[in-house]
Design a protein that fits this description.
globular; Uroporphyrinogen decarboxylase; 3-stranded antiparallel beta sheet; alpha/beta
Length: 327
């Protein structure tokens, strides 16, 4: 029987996996690494991170989002972003890194990848600072200022990457950045090429030059038109790929260059009245249509969790069942 790591590589290389890769099983996420924002502010609370961005999580919603009223918006004028944006320090004490180092050192790297985690992404940072509407308009109206801001975020990411690599020596990276809605990208491929692609080539190139073997990028959205850019910037696995991307077609076109992780839309199966039968229906369809190579069945959720208790675990159990049925 192949290890989780070996089985993943067989899937990615078009070899001979002996089972479906089961969601996040190959990644040992080192979530203890110090960051500028707690991973999970509690429902019904607000949290301000070290960039000055205030996240609000209404008690009746399943997640948080930055506040962009006049009181809380960090960047009110993109041409004056330098006056209001100051990146936090990437330097933390040895004590603050201790838990992450202990976790990383305890991982059997022959079985799983020690995985660094980074969020929010570069595009997300721009609209977290000023709102989605302002960020999209600024790309058109103040392109040079936006390029300066993106370059500033990139320098912060590179500095944090250096510290992360120094302390936990990851061999995989799980990086967030949502690039679209369910049916379209937020910006055109041409604009993506101008603003976002060069930034990620620097960031992902740095991680790969310093020991990271596998880059997993989360975008639970439509982004099928950006797959060539994903490949160019060094993404190995697109996690969160939704059914609206027509994943089987993407596998036929790009399999061997990139692996697709998802095709079980969280919005369809992760809700208060969820059932194992519905999860099985969607997961079976995904596995039958996408096949055994260049594909990892997974909820589109951006971590190894679900919004409602039991859904992630039930999905993992279903994928094990599908392995028994299809391998």
């Amino acid at each position: 029987m192949l290890t989780k790591r070996q089985n993943l590589m067989e899937v990615m290389k078009g070899g001979h996996p002996d089972r479906f890769v089961n969601q996040y099983e190959f990644m040992e996420l080192i979530l203890e690494a110090p960051m500028d924002l707690p991973l999970a502010p509690e429902p019904g609370t607000r949290v301000k991170n070290k960039w000055g961005i205030t996240f609000d999580w209404p008690a009746d919603q399943i997640g948080s989002f930055p506040m962009h009223d006049d009181e809380h918006k960090v960047v009110k004028d993109i041409t004056k972003w330098k006056e209001s944006v100051k990146a936090p320090s990437v330097f933390y004490t040895d004590e603050e890194w201790a838990a992450a180092e202990a976790h990383a050192n305890a991982v059997d790297r022959k079985d799983k990848f020690v995985t660094a985690f980074c969020a929010p992404g570069i595009f997300e940072m721009t609209h977290h600072l000023m709102s989605m509407e302002d960020a999209l308009m600024a790309l058109y109206e103040e392109s040079e200022a936006m390029k300066e801001l993106i370059a500033y975020v990139v320098e912060y990411e590179l500095a944090y990457a250096k510290e992360c690599i120094k302390h936990i020596h990851p061999d995989a990276l799980f990086h967030h950045d949502d690039w679209g809605s369910q049916i379209s990208t937020f910006i055109s491929p041409a604009m993506f090429d101008e603003f976002i692609l060069p930034a990620y080539k620097k960031v992902y190139g740095y991680w790969k030059a310093n020991g990271v073997e596998v880059i997993v990028h989360h975008s639970d959205s439509y982004a099928a038109t950006l797959v060539p850019e994903m490949i160019e910037m060094g993404i190995d696995i697109w996690q969160g790929v939704m059914t609206t991307n027509k994943v089987p077609e993407l596998i036929k076109k790009y399999g061997g260059k990139i692996t697709f992780m998802g095709d079980i839309d969280s919005g369809r199966v992760d809700f208060p009245g969820w059932t194992r039968e519905k999860i099985y229906e969607d997961a079976k369809k995904a596995c039958e249509e996408c096949g055994k190579l260049y594909f990892i069945p997974n909820l589109s959720q951006g971590l190894n969790i679900s919004s409602f208790p039991g859904v992630y675990e039930a999905t993992s159990d279903v994928i094990d069942q599908l392995t028994r049925e299809m391998f």
